[in-house]
Amino acid sequence: MGTKQKLISLTLCVGLIMGMTAADRFSIAFAAETPKQEAVRKLGELNALITQAKGSGIDTTREESAAWMASEFIKYADWDAANVAKNKAQFERVKLFQNNAQQLANDLPNFERREVSQMLDTAKTELNQVMSGAVTRRAVSKVNWSNITVQNDQFMSNGKPVFLYDYFSKPLNIPTSDPTLYNEYLGKLDHPKAISPIFALDEAGTIDQTKLADLKNRPTNTAGYLMLWHDPLPQWAATKYGPEILKGQSFFTKYDIDHPQVREIWKDVFKGTIPTTAGKNYTKLGYILANEPHWFTAKGHWAAVSNVSTYTMSKFRTWLEAKHGTIAKLNGLWGTSYSSFSQVNLAIPLDASYKNTPIWYDWSRFNMDRGTEWLTFLHDEIKKYDPAARTQLKLMPDLFVEGPRDHGIDFEALTEMTEIIGDDAKIRKRNMNSTGPESWESKYAYYWEEMAMSYDFMDSVSPNKPHFNSEVHLLSTTQYRDLYMKPEYVRSTYWQTTIHGLNGGLTWFWGRNADGSIEERLQNATGGLGESYAASVAQQPRVAQELTKTMMDMNAFSNEIVKFQRERKPVRLFYSEAAAINDFNYMQDQFDLYESMYFSGVPLGFATKNIIFKQPNSDWDVIVVRKTEEVTEAEFNALQIYLDNGGTVILDDVSLKFNEYKQPRAKTLTAGTGKLIKMTNNAVSGIASRVTTELSAKGQLPPVVLTENNGLPSKGAFWRVVPHGTNTYLMTIVNVGKNTSNISLKMANNKNVTVKNLMTGKSSPASFSLGSEQVLLLEVKPVP
């Protein structure tokens, strides 16, 4: 092109541009932006807006969080762009991503930058609404991480309940004083290195002073927790006491819990460490006695122990003698011909042919008792040197909601024993190893059964204890990952879990250093930890920000949310460990009943023999017994005493027929001075309907009624209502259904209501649509 032609072309371009509107010229300029330039520009715009809003006295804590996350993830994206091969290696470790690991690694930096831009757009929109007065919101109550206290069932900060948050896997070599990874956006809980048997250098109990130094010299600025780790055993102990001390190993406990020398080692370790840790801020949230304890003993299970020690079998014989009294009685039950208890011997892992036999029951029950006894030993030894100590356990709730009971974990006994309820419950979408849709997908947006049912059980056992999940699997698990997760899922799952009683947790995962690089140990890690980084929250800016913002919103309304947590549970499902051991389908049958009442607005709980005897029976109105065929005599008697004291029991036509050994029971429940309602079948619909009738007669149905239509036969709106002042009610709704729900609210007496969204300050019609995974916190009042 000649000079004249270039000038003509340039003149035409200038003319076209001059003829455009300002908006058109703006669009062209930004169309040429790279994703990074766009993110940086929008961050600058949000920061300018924050400055303007703060000048008007507006709380901008939520937006400051978005700005901080944006800045960090812009940095992370730069690192990812320079380290594509390292990210490719991480994606290749996850089966779901192996076929397109290279493309995912290539796309990751700009994916993160675009997510940052969307996050900043959302923050700017909300702040503009606040500045214009269109939205009114409550200021965030920031956590005072250095002054957390425990009061009954809550963690407290600045005189009010607080929901604590942090991440499970921040880099080990970065101190908790580092403000880049420990702050109000990612959480700021302290966690010294775990105490373990290798602290003991010899049989005399000499403590490794190098390991003790971290506990001695650690700054005690923020609240935290201290883990007990059970792997490995000191080499000197394995050498001195031989292979017997290494028998009965489980996945995270690499020694025999019944070996007397193991206990002596732990006694020495506690004696040498707990006086140092006692009263420190970093143990304020408790000593975690074990990471995911379990001792599966059924042949064929992936985590089954390969054997047990002579100490374990000897303890089993003692247990059998205490339970059965005579060897003749045992032989009669087992179909054996032992001449004494000393002859009893079982090959562990136990063959499947023993299932549903008295032998299976006795071993499973004993295995639970020995697990409880071992963990109680750890608890008591800590309390010996730190009487004010609180303990917790990282229990796996799937062991409660699923069928097998050979795992050695008694959820009720362990929840009773510890001062803080502890677990690592999960919520997820489809398991990445599933070959097709899972059964829940026809109704729900995600799988919530494990969290909800186990949390209601543990809260029923210990209603006055705080609940801390030390490995929160709501965003990802080793079996679930979604790189393109939407913020709605994050808010929905954390909100639902908190309504069910969670007071704090460590979300799985993080894994980035302050400069955005992948933590060194993860680059070579194997197993679950090694597979956990790819497509986790550290690659998801909007997910990370929504988690923080959700926690900030809940902390702004913590006094209100605690009312939902403490709401009385008028309906109790009867739970029998004997039935659970005997019947593989027992927990599914209980969930069917639980699910049928879950969307009624009525909080659900559980009743056991111990709950009936230890807690005021006025805490509930009815106990429901469904498909609980085998119960111990003590469990049967507890129900009868409850009836004799005026209680109400709804009983189906198959329950309580047998004892724990499947022997027929001659006795049947009688009403006594109470009310015994015998159903002619065990269908959940009929039982749920009768529960509603009983609650209505006792005046215990919710004062506000929610009607839902989501186009499915099943409901999806999980909701709760609590009083909040004179003639005013708080209501929260979480749509866990797969479809949008059309919802209408009225008072139970059919009066119309006024509705206000407490998160925005806006009035709402009493009939509205609520999308899948959407959350509401409402104030509801009857129209005068």
Keywords, please?
784 residues; alpha/beta; Rossmann fold; Immunoglobulin-like; 5-stranded parallel beta sheet; 5-stranded antiparallel beta sheet; 25 helices; 23 strands; GH; Glycoside hydrolase family 42 N-terminal domain-containing protein
Question: Mind sketching the topology for me?
Answer:
Elements: H1 3-19, H2 22-31, H3 35-55, H4 61-82, H5 84-92, H6 101-132, E1 149-151, E2 154-157, E3 160-161, E4 164-167, H7 209-217, E5 226-227, H8 235-241, H9 260-277, E6 287-291, H10 310-324, H11 327-334, H12 358-385, E7 391-394, H13 398-401, H14 411-417, E8 421-423, H15 449-461, E9 467-472, H16 487-499, E10 504-507, H17 520-524, H18 527-530, H19 541-556, H20 558-565, E11 571-574, H21 577-582, H22 586-598, E12 604-607, H23 609-614, E13 622-625, H24 633-644, E14 648-651, E15 675-678, H25 684-697, E16 704-709, E17 717-723, E18 729-735, E19 741-747, E20 753-757, E21 762-764, E22 767-770, E23 775-782
Parallel strand pairs: 4-10, 5-6, 6-7, 8-9, 9-10, 11-12, 11-13, 13-14, 14-15
Antiparallel strand pairs: 1-2, 2-3, 16-19, 17-18, 18-23, 19-22, 20-21, 20-23
Question: What report would you give on this structure?
Answer:
The chain is an alpha/beta fold and 784 residues long. Among the domains are: 1-28, no CATH class; 571-697, Rossmann fold (3-Layer(aba) Sandwich), CATH 3.40.50.880; 704-782, Immunoglobulin-like (Sandwich). 40% of the residues lie in helices and 13% in strands. The strands form 6 sheets. It has a 5-stranded parallel β-sheet with strand order 12-11-13-14-15, sandwiched between helices. It is globular, with a radius of gyration of 29 Å. Mean pLDDT is 95; it is low at 10-14. Residues 1-31 form the signal peptide. InterPro entries: Class_I_gatase-like, GH, Glyco_hydro_42_N. Pfam families: Glyco_hydro_42. GO terms for molecular function: beta-galactosidase activity. Residues 309-524 form the Glycoside hydrolase family 42 N-terminal domain.
